[in-house]
Structure prediction request, 622 residues.
Amino acid sequence: MDFGWHLPCYGPLATRENLIRVAQEAEACALESVFVSDHLALPFEAATPYEGSRSGAFPIPPSASFLEPLTALAVVAAVTERVSLGTTVLVLPHRHPVLAAKTIATLDHLSGGRVIVGAGVGWLREEIEMLGVPYDRRGAWSDEALDVMKRCWADERSKHAGEFFRFGDVGCYPKPVQEPYPPLWIGGRSAAAYRRVARFGDGFHAAWSPPDLMRDQIREVFTACGEVGRLGTDLTFSVRAGFAVRDQPSSRPTASLVGPAAFVIEQIARYAGVGVGHIVLEAPLRSLEEHLSLMHRFIEEIRPFTEDA
Amino acid sequence: MSPSECPSVEFGCHLPVFGPAATRANLLTFAREMEGLGYESLWASDHIVVPHAISSRYPYNATGKFPLPPDATFLEPLTALGMVAAVTERAKLGTTVLVLPHRHPVLAAKALATLDHLSEGRVILGAGVGWMREEIELLGAPFDQRGAWSDEAIRVMRACWGDERTSFQGRFFTFSDMGCFPKPVRGDIPIWMGGHARPALRRIVALADGWHAAFPTAEGLEAGVRELREECARQHRPFEELTITLRAGLALRTSPGGPDRKALQGTPEEIVGDLRRYQALGVSHVLMEASYRDPAQMIRTFETFASDIRPLV
Prediction:
């Protein structure tokens, strides 16, 4: 099982010092990856419910700092050497796909091939419409965007003719170090998302799914793979999970790795049992010290006991 | 004005962001060394794609041909500056220039504010409206309206940076009541606009904090400053509010050049003369670009400038 750490990329902890210190510590602790998330602007009044909370309210207030993820990962890339740099998730409609491909290729080039592109179609109507993408067609738009990004990464001469994007014969360089492009892990919780994984993905990256749901989702991804004649045995299954070590497990659905160390170890074994190979640990923390001490507890009290899983 | 009455000039270096020199090692080494030599700023340029067929005329050389082939590496500038921000502490981080139509202004504002936040207030936005039709149209902006589009984009960015609750209603962008955070550390990010045509100069006086002239001749710079003064008078803005800056190629030679010698390309004495002329025109920041062909040589050129030429200015 590979493990990633969600970096302090939003709220008052999202400072230069904290971002760099936590990323360097994750690398020093031999965690496999660090991840950041993607919001460009948050509405004061949101019409769409958030699937990661029971109330449907987005847990981060609109006045909270939320770093642009690829810029934050560039800072992290410069002060680390080995740890993978991922997005959970890059919301495809937030960026023109040619710009996204260029930025990701630059990051992969400058980091020596360490990028993991977790990508989704987004859920927040106001933000997506603000950026000029038709919310109700964001699935089709994103499918085409993924096609465009692949053309930019893999082709000597990139061109595309589709419904939303059209261009002929341009050079997009640098190419990513990882050939033909960085691992593309698609997120989402719908039949369309599983089809997108089968069609475009190198992995499936779930947000907040407990092990039982993850099992069902993985089954659905394999079904979708079958429908397009793909075995899917090469796919990476990854989950972003709430994490904390404390006396009692949490009843919150987003907190599948919250509880006593023994419980967290069992839950990780459950994830491994259903085919998960990568977990992004996200802890709601109030200080740099809490990040570092929880990371150390994970390394000392949990990780050594997950290796058989 | 005598030199003692002139404002002091700051110097910046163009980073190795395109061609074979654009590697992690070169970028980070160069940035650290230039900061160590006392250069005030580090700069990256902006192309997202290079079309195989380019119909627009490149405005910055005699041939009108874009000097890089389509398969040349060209780093995304805000990503390159993010890397540089992490390994420097003091140097300002600028774009020369960010082509505004390449990015939705809300995304640009967010990425720039993030870079400013993580560099603790060091960002300068050099910005332009662009010249390459194919690239701009590919990214979805209307080439023939890129001036109006860019004016609105600047207003959107300033709203994102300045307002607690950001709303905007314009011709190209409309949204209401959004939170855009982090805010820039200094409350705003200085915008230095490129361009030299009349609409560009109008835009600078109306919307920007400074002029960023690209590879100007001495006469072009002089004419531009004169026109900016006139435009300031028309718009009732004190000329002194504008920061006058330029980008020029730096090349050190051992023998004097002829009448076609370009500014900052010559003997130390010639370059000092060029810089004094700039100073007299009110230029306060000079961004220099040395040949990337040999990264070690590029560093030596900037070392020599720092040790032998700068003290004379």
Chain B has a mean pLDDT of 95. Chain B touches chain A through 61 residues (CB under 8 Å). Chain B has one domain: 3-312. The CA atoms of residues 41 and 92 of chain B lie 4 Å apart.
